[in-house]
Amino acid sequence: MFPDHSAKERITHERIDELCASPLAADFDALCAKQLYLNLVVSCTNSRHSDIQAAAAVFKEAAKANGGVVPKIVGGVKMFIAAASSREQEAAEDSGDWQVLLDAGAEALVSDSALGSLNPEIGITASNCNFKGRMGSREALAYLGSPEVVAASALKGIISGPGAYKGSGQPRSVESDFNDMVQQLDSFIGNVESTETSSNGPAVEILPGFPESVREEIVFMDIDSQDTDQIYPRSMTYESNVSKEAMANACMKDYDPDFQKVSRPNDILVSGNGFGCGSSREQAATAILAISIHFVVAGLRAAFPKDAKRPFPTFRTGWTLKWDVKKSMVQVQEGEGGEESAENVGDIPPNVQEIIALGGLHERCRHELKKAS
C-alpha cells in the first residue's frame, strides 16, 4: 500500500552491478590531499551500543592479523569514547565491546560534552554535529564519520575507511577501495534480505500508565505543510491563562472551521507531508491534546492522494490504525474487512514513556521533585 523507501529497495544487486559498470574516479586534474593527519582527537561519542559494537568490530578484525591481540591506536592520536546513556554503556560492557576499545587505548569520557575542553587541531567524530567550537577551539577542523570510519582512522593515523587498517603494505587505490565498498554493500544486502521484518524480536518493556497498544479510526486532514498557526491561532499565542476548553475550541479553526464536527475524541489524526512546520509553539501540541487526540501520524500522503473532487479539508476515512507498542509495529486496515498492511517502527524508550504516562515533562518534573522532598 505504501511506497517502500527502505534500504532493501534502494540498495539491490542490480544497482550495485550498474555501479560496477561505471566506476567512480576523480577528475584527471583534481587536486587532493595526500594525507590528512589527526593531531589529537578521534571520538566515537553520543553512541548507542550498536555504534560502539561497530567501532569495536574494526579493532577485532585488525586483531586477526595481529596474533589475536587488539592493536593499539597509532601514536600521536587519541580516541575518546562516551556512551549515549549508562544503559547503553552497560550493554557495551556486557558484550565486551567497551573493553575492546579500552584495550586499544581509547579513553572513556562521562559524556561527549567533555570534548569541548580537548582543543584538537583536527578531529573526527561519530557524534551528530561538527559546528565551530565543537572540539573546543574554533580553529579546529571537526569531521563527521561513522563509528567504523572513526575506528579505522584511529588505527591508521589519517582519516580512513574500514579496510585501510589492514596494512597490506600496498598503497590504496580507487579500484581497491571501490572493490571493498562493493563487498561491504553485498554483505549489507545479504543481511537485509535475511532479516525478518516481522515482530519476532523481543517485546518492548511497557511502563505502568503507558498503553501497550492503541487502535482507533483515522481522520485525515487533506493538507501538506500545515503550520502551527493553522493548528493554533497566532492571535492567541501570547495570551496567558487560556483554559483547556478555550484551547480546544480554537484548535484547527484557522485550517477547517468544521474540524471538530468531523473529528472525535481519541481519533488518530493523519495528515499529508510537513505537518507542524513553522514556529515551534507548544500550544500547537497542547491544543491537539485539549481535543482529546493523542496520536498524530504525518506524511501519509501516498495513502490519501490529492483529489480535486474531495470538497472537505477534513474527512473520516473508515480506516483503522493500530500501534502495537510492545511489538514496535503499526498496522493499518483499509476499512472493515479491507486490506491490511504493517510497518515496523522504532521503540519508545522508558524515559519517553514515563513523561507521557505522567502527563508531560512539567508533570514529570513535579513528580521527581516530590520524590526528592
Automatic annotation (TrEMBL):
Per UniProt, residues of the Aconitase A/isopropylmalate dehydratase small subunit swivel domain are 195-298
Q: Name one GO biological process term.
A: L-amino acid biosynthetic process
**Superkingdom of this protein's organism:** Eukaryota
For this UniProt record, give its keywords in alphabetical order, as a comma-separated list. Iron, Iron-sulfur, Lyase, Metal-binding
Task: Name the Pfam families on file.
Answer: Aconitase (PF00330), Aconitase_C (PF00694)
Instruction: Cite the PANTHER family for this sequence.
Output: HOMOACONITASE, MITOCHONDRIAL (PTHR43822:SF2), HOMOACONITASE, MITOCHONDRIAL-RELATED (PTHR43822)
What is the name listed in the Swiss-Prot or TrEMBL entry for this protein? Homoaconitase
This protein's species is: Gibberella intermedia
